[in-house]
Amino acid sequence: MPGTIQVISLGPGAPEYILPVALNAIAEAEVIACGARHLESFDAAGKETYIIGSEGMKLSEVVDALKAVYETKKTAVVVSGDCGFYSLLRYLKTKFPPERVTALPGISSLQYLFAKLAMPYQDAALLSLHGREQDLLGALSRNPVVGMLTDDAHNAAWLGRLLLDYGYANKVITVGEDLSYPEERITRLTPKEALTFAERGMSVMIVSDE
């Protein structure tokens, strides 16, 4: 409704993995802010649209644009995966009155990858190395399974080298790329094999004992 910023989770990307409640909310929105690739997953025709990122505007500029319209128009920010897991939800609650920010959940890319492996994740450590540093070694020492979002610097080769250097040569790395899309690729690697593995882009990874 006008006067709120609704953060809508898109899931891993393919339309069939978007929750119906999220699709309904997107359809009702008059203003949409999202990444360029998100527009492949839903119909934005007739909506006032702001693209976040290198193909559009800086995030701060998008926030300024939304502040000018959200009081009078149904406004939504569409994000990948689940909005509660290393997404824009926390940031937006610092830029708008927190009580004006609402959220709809979605399937995170890590949740999707765990399901594809038929692997429970209730005991896994989940973290993000996407544009940030976290205590991955600490997580590995305390947990049999670690799932992580990655970036270009924290890739499979980097992870393989880290595992070999710190005595985790027997671990298995599972790399998920383009998850839920037709070009999806899920690859299981030893740390040694990971040293020469070339991702097609950013991926999510799981480190486990099997």
Structural overview:
This protein has two domains: 5-107, 3-Layer(aba) Sandwich (Cobalt-precorrin-4 Transmethylase, domain 1); 110-208, Methyltransferase, Cobalt-precorrin-4 Transmethylase, Domain 2 (2-Layer Sandwich), CATH 3.30.950.10. Helices cover 26% and strands 23% of the residues. It has seven helices and ten strands. The chain has helices at residues 20-28, 59-67, 89-95, 109-116, 136-142, 156-165, 191-194; strands at 5-9, 31-35, 48-52, 75-79, 101-104, 125-128, 146-149, 172-177, 185-189, 204-208. It has a five-stranded parallel sheet, with helices on both faces. A five-stranded mixed sheet has the order 6-7-10-8-9, sandwiched between helices. A hairpin with a 7-residue loop joins strand 8 (172-177) and strand 9 (185-189). The chain starts with a strand and ends with a strand.
Which stretches are low in confidence, meaning pLDDT under 50 for 5 or more residues running?
A: none
Head-to-tail CA distance between termini: 47 Å
CATH secondary-structure class of the largest domain: Alpha Beta
Strand order of the largest sheet: 3-2-4-1-5
Tell me the fraction of residues in β-strands, as a range. 15-25%
Tell me the number of structural domains. 2
At CATH level 3, the topology of the largest domain is: Cobalt-precorrin-4 Transmethylase, domain 1
Largest sheet: 5 strands, parallel
Q: Which CATH-level-2 architecture of the largest domain?
A: 3-Layer(aba) Sandwich
CATH superfamily of the largest domain: Tetrapyrrole methylase, N-terminal domain
